[in-house]
């Protein structure tokens, strides 16, 4: 049960720190967000994506809150980089934010409309990160950079991410795409998920697409077995591998019996930032090692 909670939370971006419902809600029509100053000096991050991006864009001392997830090696790609002076939050409270008096609050698309309304009526400026695919990453970096007054750093970070994805696409050009199933007992990732996007850009064919699944959805073991994927992708750590090897149905898959199991660090599976290019590269190396062989002189 602990593993399932971690995976579902990670797959949903782990961007819910303010009061959340698990689904994206439209921002309230009333009371538009207050305009932030040109270069906010006190920034409150309420989601892990904000943590991972802000630490690249602003000096650490400008962060007054970050999420408690930022210090968790199973979820975060920035462990050890967050300032000790920044207050850690898991579920943000308006009282805390008002007391801290941030110039800008960074929220996510999953933040509840009621909480956004409270932010607006309190006079606190906020910036909303919306990342639903890898195509959203670079524009989101640029928009955040503008909001925090660090447009040049944001441009370099966004350009680097875009260039790295393009280089990976060139490296994988023409590869045969093995059929891959992401498995997190009993969930998989279908269309309209970043995991699906990552699989496709890693030179794989997502079996969950073949099954007609959208979002993070449970898949019956018998159906997964009948799909006969060539590879299984799972999170590294915990007892995920042991659970797969002991599964009464999935352990009989050829991919499992032949050891075609790719374990990806959980933090790379959870991220919704520029670190996704690392996720793609990690998977691509596992699926297409011949494309990463060093050139012999």
What does this structure look like?
Helix content is 39%, strand content 14%. The chain has 297 residues and is an alpha/beta fold. The protein is built from 13 helices and 11 strands. Helix 6 (151-171) runs parallel beside helix 13. The radius of gyration is 20 Å and the shape is globular. The protein folds into 2 domains: 13-165, Nitrogenase molybdenum iron protein domain (Rossmann fold), CATH 3.40.50.1980; 179-292, Nitrogenase molybdenum iron protein domain (Rossmann fold, 3-Layer(aba) Sandwich). The strands form 3 sheets. Strands 3-2-1-4-5 form a 5-stranded parallel beta sheet, sandwiched between helices. It has a 4-stranded parallel beta sheet with strand order 8-6-10-11. A two-stranded antiparallel sheet has the order 7-9.
Outline of this structure?
With 297 residues, the protein is an alpha/beta fold. The protein has helices at 2-11, 48-57, 94-100, 113-122, 137-147, 151-171, 194-201, 207-210, 221-227, 240-246, 254-257, 266-270, 276-287, and strands at residues 43-45, 63-67, 87-89, 104-108, 126-129, 179-182, 187-189, 205-206, 216-218, 231-236, 261-265. It folds into two domains: 13-165, 3-Layer(aba) Sandwich (Rossmann fold); 179-292, Nitrogenase molybdenum iron protein domain (Rossmann fold, 3-Layer(aba) Sandwich), CATH 3.40.50.
């Amino acid at each position: 049960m602990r593993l399932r909670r971690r995976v579902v939370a990670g797959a949903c971006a782990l961007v819910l720190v303010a009061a959340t419902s698990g689904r994206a809600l439209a921002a309230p029509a009333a009371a538009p967000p207050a305009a932030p100053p040109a270069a906010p000096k006190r920034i409150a991050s309420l989601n892990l994506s904000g943590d991972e991006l802000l630490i690249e864009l602003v000096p650490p001392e400008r962060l007054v809150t970050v999420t408690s997830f930022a210090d968790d090696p199973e979820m975060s790609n920035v462990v050890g980089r967050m300032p000790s002076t920044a207050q850690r939050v898991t579920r943000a409270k308006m009282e805390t934010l008002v007391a801290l008096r941030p110039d800008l609050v960074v929220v996510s698309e999953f933040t509840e409309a009621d909480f956004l309304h409270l932010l607006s009526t309190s006079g606190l400026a906020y910036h909303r990160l919306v990342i639903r695919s890898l195509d959203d990453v670079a524009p989101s970096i640029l928009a955040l950079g503008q909001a925090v007054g660090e447009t040049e750093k944001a441009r370099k970070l966004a350009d680097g991410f875009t260039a790295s994805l393009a280089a990976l696409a060139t490296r994988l050009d023409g590869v045969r795409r093995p059929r891959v199933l992401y498995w997190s007992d009993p969930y998989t990732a279908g269309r309209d998920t970043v995991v699906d996007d990552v699989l496709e850009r890693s030179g794989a064919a997502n079996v969950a697409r073949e099954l007609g699944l959208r979002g993070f959805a449970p898949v019956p073991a018998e159906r997964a077995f009948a799909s006969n994927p060539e590879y299984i992708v799972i999170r590294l750590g915990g007892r995920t591998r042991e659970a797969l090897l002991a599964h009464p149905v999935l352990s009989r898959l050829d991919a499992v019996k032949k050891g075609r199991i790719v374990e990806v660090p959980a933090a790379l599976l959870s991220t919704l930032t520029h670190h996704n290019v690392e996720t793609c590269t990690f998977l691509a190396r596992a699926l297409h090692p011949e494309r990463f062989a060093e050139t012999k002189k």
